[in-house]
Amino acid sequence: MSPSALPYRPHNHDACVAQALTEARTICQQHNARLTPTRERVLELIWQSHKPLGAYDVLAVLAADGHNAAPPTVYRALDFLQQHGLVHRIASLNAFVGCTHPGKNHQGLFLICRCCGNVLELTAPGVSDAVKNAAADEAFQPDNMTIEVSGTCPGCASDTAHD
Amino acid sequence: MSPSALPYRPHNHDACVAQALTEARTICQQHNARLTPTRERVLELIWQSHKPLGAYDVLAVLAADGHNAAPPTVYRALDFLQQHGLVHRIASLNAFVGCTHPGKNHQGLFLICRCCGNVLELTAPGVSDAVKNAAADEAFQPDNMTIEVSGTCPGCASDTAHD
DNA sequence: TTGCTAATGTTATAATATTGCAAATTCCAC
DNA sequence: GTGGAATTTGCAATATTATAACATTAGCAA
Ligand SMILES: [Zn+2]
Ligand SMILES: [Zn+2]
Ligand SMILES: [Zn+2]
Ligand SMILES: [Zn+2]
After folding, report:
1. Which residues of B touch A147 (CB under 8 A)?
2. A158 pLDDT band (50/70/90 cuts)?
């Protein structure tokens, strides 16, 4: 199994978070963008697991933090993070997940487990090429793709196998 | 250009609608499902163009019809129509569009024009195979795919070409 | 300092979707 | 046809997700 399959097996998730935050700082510096405390905190929360988090979930944690935030605070932070390629929005869930390939130019494909909720982001150039070809056949100029797959991850499949 | 590229060029759209309704009746009969007046009317409204329609847009037209409907009426009708493969929900737009391949077993790929709003549904087996392969490489069992591409359709591209 | 821009706070509201229960309709066996 | 089950609809309330509009503050440079 490829090492990218991280969410599906035990791993040192604190290291995931730490790395994501470090990379985010670097990327924001390169972009001359300010990773303010609120933005950084939101990113950290999004990374608290490999399960997508809703904007209002983020909001609730901020509130618990003592940060008296309103929805726009969260949505603005999320917009910023998306803009800089640090998080992705999962359209089929109205939720957000940390990008596992930040800084790299990539088209994500998301494998969403219905059972455990974890999301694995793949780069899948083969898929985006196939989509581009299909679009080109219709003379359509793509500019953004949403590719999301719901199903069962290997962990959950083996859990339920011995029923 | 393939004949499926219908929304992007002038065509007898009344014929589109009529055919969609006829096929819907047939399919519901085959499924032993009841295409009630409300459901049929909602399907007709969804088909009023090749642009996806929001649930509340449908609701507004029903209201104008004199039908005193509440949101659940519309969402239930849309659920029914989705269940029977007569409409698709476009996750990136929170809106619904008529299925152009009803009755056929297919995985849709949607080309969404940002400019005119029209959506072309493709079957694109190449794409779904590529997605299935990518999923299989991670031992993931897909069960539903969302593949949506935003961009510029050929009509809109040629309109803006001579700027 | 002053003035500019980006970022945040705040309030309100818009837009999308669901729950739960009661009433009506339709279906089907008898 | 009639009774009873199952499906469909009506309806009120509410949940969830997202944005608009405007005031305030922080960061930064001339
Ligand atoms: Zn992790
Ligand atoms: Zn990514
Ligand atoms: Zn048409
Ligand atoms: Zn379809």
Report:
1. 131, 145-147
2. confident
How far is it, in rounded angstroms, from Cα B28 to Cα A108?
Answer: 37
Pairing between strand B141-152 and B109-113? parallel
Give strand letter and number of the nucleotide nearest A32 (CA to C1').
C6
> How far apart, in whole angstroms, are the C-alpha atoms of residue A142 and residue A135?
7
At residue A112, the 3 state secondary structure works out as strand
Give per-residue pLDDT as tens, A110-154.
999 999 999 999 999 999 999 999 999 999 999 999 999 999 999
Task: Pick A138's closest partner by Cβ from B5, B147, B148.
Answer: B5
The pTM is what? 0.93
In whole angstroms, how far apart are CA B112 and each of B13, B41, B122? 18, 24, 11
The encoded tokens of residue A159 equal 């859990």
Which uninterrupted H or E stretch holds A99? none
Residue B1 clears pLDDT 50, i.e. is over it: no
Closest Cα in chain A, distance from residue B129 (Å) = 9
**A97 CA, C3 C1': Å apart:** 40
* Residue of chain A with shortest Cα separation from B135: A111
- What are the structure tokens assigned to B100, written together? 């152009």
* A62 neighbors A73 (Cβ within 8 angstroms): yes
Q: How far is A120 from chain B (nearest CA, A)?
A: 9
Which residues of chain B make contact with A137, given a CB cutoff of 8 A? 2
For chain A, list the domains and their CATH numbers.
6-161 (1.10.10.10)
Tokens encoding B51: 């642009």
Q: Which residue is it, tokens 């104008």?
A: B64
Q: Report the alpha-carbon distance of residue B48 to residue B65 in Å, rounded.
A: 15
- The one-character DSSP state at A143 is E
Å: A5 CA to C11 C1': 44
**B145 contact to strand C (CB, 7 A limit):** no
Of A148, A120, A152, A95, which Cα lies nearest the Cα of A3? A120
For residue A116, the distance in angstroms to the closest alpha carbon of chain B comes to: 13
**Contact (CB, 8 A) for A112 and A92:** yes
